[in-house]
Amino acid sequence: MFIINLTYTSDLALVDQFLDAHICFLNEYYATGVFQASGKKVPRTGGVIFATIESKKALQDIIAKDPFYKHNLARYEVIEFLPSKTSTTYDFLLD
């Protein structure tokens, strides 16, 4: 499992111009089962995405398709972790 930590590097007005395209990107990878959860940071300095995928390389290939990435609007930190305990709702995340 991976946590993608996005930090905006541009003004929010510019980020907002690409928000609909970013949401379409998210929806595409929710539909494939790669993305499990996402949302805005508070305060709104970026966002967080939880992803399940076989490799960091495969995830980086997906990130490269994000409009925020393509337009250099955010910095991306990818953190890999192996869940060892979850609530029963999220048992599917256990390896």
Question: Architecture, CATH level 2?
Answer: 2-Layer Sandwich
Strand residue content: 25-35%
Spatial strand order of the main sheet? 2-3-1-4
Distance between the termini: 9 Å
Major sheet details: 4 strands, antiparallel
**Number of extended strands:** 4
The low-confidence parts are none
Which class in CATH terms? Answer: Alpha Beta
- Specify the overall morphology: globular
Quaternary structure annotation: single chain
- Average predicted local confidence, pLDDT: 95
Which structural class should the secondary elements be placed in?
alpha+beta
Q: State the domain count.
A: 1
By CATH's scheme, which homologous superfamily applies? Dimeric alpha+beta barrel
Tell me roughly what share of residues is in helical segments: 25-40%
Which topology does CATH recognise?
Alpha-Beta Plaits
Count of individual helical segments: 4
Report Rg. Answer: 14 Å
Order of helices and strands: EHHEEHHE
Supply database-style keywords.
four-stranded antiparallel beta sheet, 95 residues, globular, Alpha-Beta Plaits, alpha+beta
